[in-house]
Design goal:
By secondary structure, the protein is mainly alpha-helical. It is built from six helices and two strands; from the N terminus they run E-H-E-H-H-H-H-H. Helix 1 links the parallel strand 1 and strand 2. The radius of gyration is 22 Å and the shape is elongated.
Length: 147
């Protein structure tokens, strides 16, 4: 977190002015900082990209719907999550990433079909079988390189 060096009050916008192209889809950008001067400076730079939403803390970002939770030690939790993901089937992780990327451009019906295709490819694959066996045998899985 940054330390405030001066008590100069600065006006803090709550969101950026709309751009001239009102028909274009706008991106929402969240800026979190406890120093209002930093918020103002970054918001000014980003305002052409889309709607800039300002938050002074993680708790405020959570309240605004930009976060699902707040962590006292985000680095430790991110490393723990990375470790958990690394222990999953690499084929399934790659399939999930493809579906996540597809969700940016495909309809719900297209995504449902894509998910079915991914599941069909995964079920019975060597890494899926290894994941089930390792779980039953209560041991760490030994996955092969992704297909």
């Amino acid at each position: 977190m940054n330390r405030v060096v001066s008590d100069i009050p600065l006006p803090l916008p709550t969101e950026a002015e709309p751009t001239a192209d009102l028909g274009a889809e706008r991106t929402r950008v969240l800026v979190v900082d406890d120093d209002e001067r930093n918020l103002l400076a970054v918001a000014t730079v980003l305002e052409d990209l889309g709607e800039v939403v300002l938050a002074r803390s993680g708790e405020e970002a959570l309240r605004l719907g930009f976060a699902t939770r707040v962590s006292a030690d985000p680095l430790a939790e991110a490393l723990q999550m990375a470790h958990e993901i690394a222990g999953k089937s690499p084929d399934a992780i790659r399939a999930g990433k493809r579906l996540l990327n597809a969700s940016l451009s495909q309809s719900a019906a297209e995504l449902l079909l894509a998910e079915s295709v991914e599941q069909k490819a995964l079920i019975g694959s060597p890494n899926q079988v290894e994941a089930v066996k390792a779980n039953i045998e209560r041991r760490a899985p030994r996955f092969s390189a992704p297909a």
